[in-house]
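Quick one - inputs below.
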Amino acid sequence: MPGAGTDLCARFVDALPITGASIAVFDTTGHQSSVGSSDAIAARIDELQFELGEGPQWEAIRSTSPVCIPDVARDSHSRWPMFGTALQALDVGALFEIPLILSRVCVGAVGLYRRTPGSLAVSDLALAASISSLVSAAAVGRALASAGDNGPPETAASPAIRREVHQATGMILAQLETTAAVAHARLQAYAFSNGRTVHEVAHEVVSRQLNFRNLSE
Amino acid sequence: MSEPTRETKLSAAFVMLADTLIADYDVVDLLHSLVERCADILDTEAGGIMIVDTSGELQLVASTSEESSLVEIMQLNAGAGPCVQCFTTGLPVTVGDIENSGNDWPDFRREALRQGFHSVHATPMRLRGQVLGAMNLFSTTKGALNPEDIAVAQALADVATIGLLQERSIRESEVVAGQLQHALNSRILIEQAKGVLSENAGLTMSEAFTALRSYARDHNLTLRDVASGVVERSMDITARAPSRVRK
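Output:
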């Protein structure tokens, strides 16, 4: 089933020499809502950067300029070592992160990937930037809608705010009697060190198959 | 040394407006520059820009002088004068002879003449049917502006209008960014609080949400406040939750 933001991603895929796209909206404190992705790899690129808290997406938001990795296999990935390693395991040749701009305010990032390596022409980067300003208001609107009490269901293509991850964070913070920040970090660390996705682990916590109280430090 | 020609002044004014628009600009500074340049280029002695505020009133936002006399004349102009006529019709209004301009604006006419002004021209600040205000230029000599001058004033006002609208849309998008922050932050807190309640009281996520909402209603608090209290463990709502959840 297509996610709510798939149509917005299609605007980029149709117009640019890329394989897939994902759109995520961020607030100024780094809270994220993943609005949509065009395919599973685009969704994974977005998810990895959410899970690891590092990656070109974060750089694009901080700098409000595009961040390009024209050759994923050869790049040193020095600014995002964990994400770089994970990215190289995917079928991705090049990745371009474009800031999502509403008027002059940066409200998120668009990840554009291509299977084959190679730069994106300056004219294509400019086109990507103008598509980004065309879809930004709709992207923010959907993020606002999905954050509501009766928001549309979260799907793999548009995981939105990833409710289960935050529910699991709440459960872990109660289990360990700690803060939300520490609980979230423990969840991330457990997933990373076990080679699992944060979402998989969160699902086990919420369905009471995994309890962090029973884990040794 | 000769005075710069009008063409030179005009192109300098456009360059200035364009330069301002691509940098971070203050909209009041932009309008001040506009009215000063226009007054100079069109050989008028004074000018002021009135912009409609959120309550629909015209307010003086920029003028060639801050003297109270000019401010007063502008206010009269906005009550009943060429400025308000220009604003309501969206069309330029040229009064080449204030003294013989009929009886429509008695207060405005009297005050303008008392200050030595004999002609006035009002240029609408509009874009795609939306009128935001008007730029008013006063001269101590009689004579209507010729069509070329009217076109020059309108062209400069149009550039400034784009700047004005752009500034408004930036302000609106900042409001949206604030809403986004509030919405995402609240939702994350609520989901975390559901997790805490689910763990501590053995509730399902749906029951946990009902407990949060009931507590918020009963204590006249926002859902976000309760969620935040639960997550920070400064609020224990599970002790009372069972009796309140049932309903």
